[in-house]
């Protein structure tokens, strides 16, 4: 039972709210107004879930570092799960206290459960990271994790929405705690974090979240497609099967998160790195790099090439894409996340897509200089135009229908150099 100080101000100003959060178990607390411009792309979703929201309370809960740093993933995941549960308990205690004072308040989970019916779109109710950054709880590092100025990235984030208008002096940090040391680049087993700041979302997601969502779908379909147990074992080792069951029974388990493990940023963390960098590398970074393990990659991806080149001692397993589209909108939304910039080298082309059917939509996709840009509508002169019934296009992408048959029946029509469609496919492997 959490004990609260009943003498707190009944007006619940910033100081009182902070005391409530700290008493509930938070290690640091900040606030941001729902009207803050930093939340412009989050506001609609927040208000859809909690329409009474006036202020968001952002808080952090520290994780124990050495479990996260261990090459034994069971130890790291134990800490992730315990801290996640603790974070949810802190949020619930804050809400309970506010409700007792007559205020409306609610909280989303730190991780799971999520709104699964929205897959493969946005499943989470509130994005904790932009709220935390706006509330001054930290800044994003090159590894895309929030770094707290004191605790580093060894934190989990929680958010509480409440109906209070709170005067506060919280603001984004002026300085980013990220050292740009690139240790996360060196340790990442899939090459998802590039030295120039590029982030290959699909590479990270395919491996680290193998036993979550899209990866689980791939597992289920492997079972469905197997002729018998022997055929199934050609695709899955006994260890992989047990690992998947462990995630189902205990909770989804991450395969890596090495970027968190090696990050030396934060006042409480940086001492060992500054005192003896060589020892920091030898004792924390190198064991993760040297670990013999299976790395999950999409076939014909930049990650597959990277692992083979950088970590030849790690086993590569090629799996299906975890971002299979369910409709035209999800197809277009996924493209920036699954784009493979190295596979696009030398390609400079403009594509016009015109979709008909239940979800009519037009979009322009430009691939040039190893970058992809997507714009609504048909813009500029195309090198290849694709006009397609939306359903037929999605069935083709999901390998449920034949492209030649769709072309013959004119459910998919091409205008321009058809070789550019193959070039397009190389940039977005499935």
Work out the radius of gyration: 24 Å
Report the strand count: 13
Beta-strand proportion? 15-25%
**Structural class by secondary-structure content:** alpha+beta
How large is the count of helical segments?
18
* Count of spatially separate domains: 3
Would you identify the regions where 5 or more consecutive residues have pLDDT less than 50?
A: 1-10
Mean of residue pLDDT values: 94
Q: Report the end-to-end length measured between terminal Cα atoms.
A: 50 Å
| Helix content, binned percent | 40-55%
By CATH, the architecture of the largest domain is named: 3-Layer(aba) Sandwich
Mass-distribution shape: globular
The main β sheet shows up as: 5 strands, mixed
Q: What's the short version?
A:
The protein has 430 residues and is of the alpha+beta class. It is 40% helix and 17% strand. A hairpin with a 2-residue loop joins strand 10 (361-368) and strand 11.
